[in-house]
Structures are given as C-alpha cells and as structure tokens.
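Hey, quick one: can you model this chain's 3D structure?
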Amino acid sequence: MAFFLETLLGGLMAGMLYSLVALGFVLIYKASGVFNFAQGAMVLFAALAMARFSQWIPEWLGMDNKFLGNVLAFAVAAACMFVLAWLIERLVLRHLVNQEGVTLLMATLGITYFLDGLGQTIFGSDIYQIDVGMPKDPIFLLEGMFEGGVLVNLEDVYAACVAALLVIVLSLFFQKTSTGRALRAVADDHQAAQSIGIPLNRIWVIVWFVAGITALVAGIIWGSKMGVQFSLTTVALRALPVIILGGLTSVPGAIIGGLIIGVGEKLSEVYLGPYVGGGIEIWFAYVLALVFLLFRPQGLFGEKIIDRV
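Sure thing. Here's the predicted structure for all 309 residues.
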C-alpha cells in the first residue's frame, strides 16, 4: 500500500506540472481562438531568462543574497514575458484577425522557431541550472501508518504546491476581477465583447502575458528539476494529451486532465510496464488521448459542437 501511495503521489505531482503547461494552451485558445504551438518555446525562453538573470543580476549589483537575486531575476523574466506578449500581439496577431485557423497555427509555429533562436542568441545554448532553494532531499511520511513510511520527493511537493497556488490565483483572477470577466467575455464571443467596449487587442496582450507567467513558473520548476536545456520545448508535447483529455476550452479540464495523465503514466508504468516490456509511461498519454478523440473528441469538460444543417 505504501508503494502504491508513493506512485500515486508522484503521479499527482507530475500531473500538476503538465497542467501548468496545458493552462497556457487553454488560456490563449479561449481568448483568441489561437492554438498556441509556441507554448513550449515560451517555457524554454522564460526558463532561460530566469536562469541567466539569476546569475547576471547578483554579478551586476555585487550582491550575495541569493533569495533577493532570484526575486529580481523573476521580476525581470516576467517583464520579458510581458514585452514578448506585447510584441506578439502588435506584430503578429493584430494582422491576422479573422484569418483561418491554419494560418494562425502556422504563425505560432513561426513564433516557436523565432523564440528558440532568440533565446539561444541572447542567453546562450549551454545547459543552465535554476536554484530557487527548493529542497531536493526525499522525506518519509506516514511512518506510523505504514512500515517504513511513504517516500516522497520534497522538491516535487514544493513544485506541486506552487503549481496549485498559481491555479488558485488564476481561478480567482478570472472569476473575481473585471479584467478576468472581460477575458471570459472575449472567450465567449469576440464581436459581442467588442460591441460593449472591451478592447480586444489589450485583452490579447493580457492573456498572452498570463500564459507567459504560467510558462515562466513551469520553466522554473522543470529547470530546477532537470536543468534548462533546449529539449525543454518538448514539454509542450507532453501537455497535448492533457488538453485533449480535459477539453481545449476548459481551465478546470486542464487541471483534471493533467492529474489523470500524471497518475495514469506512473501507475501504468509500475503495474503494467512489466507485462508489456516497459516504456509504457512514454506513450500511455497519447493512447489515452487517441481513445478520447475517437469517442469524446471535445474532452471531459469541453463544449460539444453541434452543426445544424
């Protein structure tokens, strides 16, 4: 039972990280109708900015306080994501209003390769470490209930708590603030939102910036665990089954889908892997997404589209 709980907790914590990346897809699609294939590149760019500025700022200011250096680096990286969001809206989205979906998809592919090249030009192409002070030593829980206790990676616990906190903040932002309500109005109907005076261009900048912040947090967590390297862009591919499962237009779906995928990967690898030769964790999410595409293409929480003729 203790081993099952260890696997379950590990899956839940991995699922929260998948959900963070999936949130970027969902937020941008809801507000602008754009499937943002550049989300993985945004994660990489944000992680590179955080890693490099956390090294450069203490050197520039001559400070020894690592915590203050990380705070300043996060603020500068967040400012970079805001500038990036503004440039994307001003130079790309503004000129592609009412274009076909495939045109917008190709635009985000172009943004992907541009960000990959820009990140390498500005920050370099080495593997960088992000140290934000998260403890990496494992701990044992429930030792009185199970013999030997339940082994949990403390860094995963902190990462899952940060991801959960960000999700709660985003939920409150969308539900309780006027800007959040404007974002939901734009998501429901662009033309109706414009007719009541909601500035569509400003909303797009905000939603791309919010997606950039989620990319920054995801990049910090993944970079702290694995190091910041250019393979980090593939994390977006791990989030694709999540949004297929949860629904491309549902924020709760991104959360639930991520948790299901994370737990399913870990449990299937441990309990089914020995019978199929291992490696099931790599393809489990995509097979599950394929099943949903066949039988429930809108996902668990997505809206079913009915065309009347």
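One thing worth noting: Residues 2-231 form one domain.
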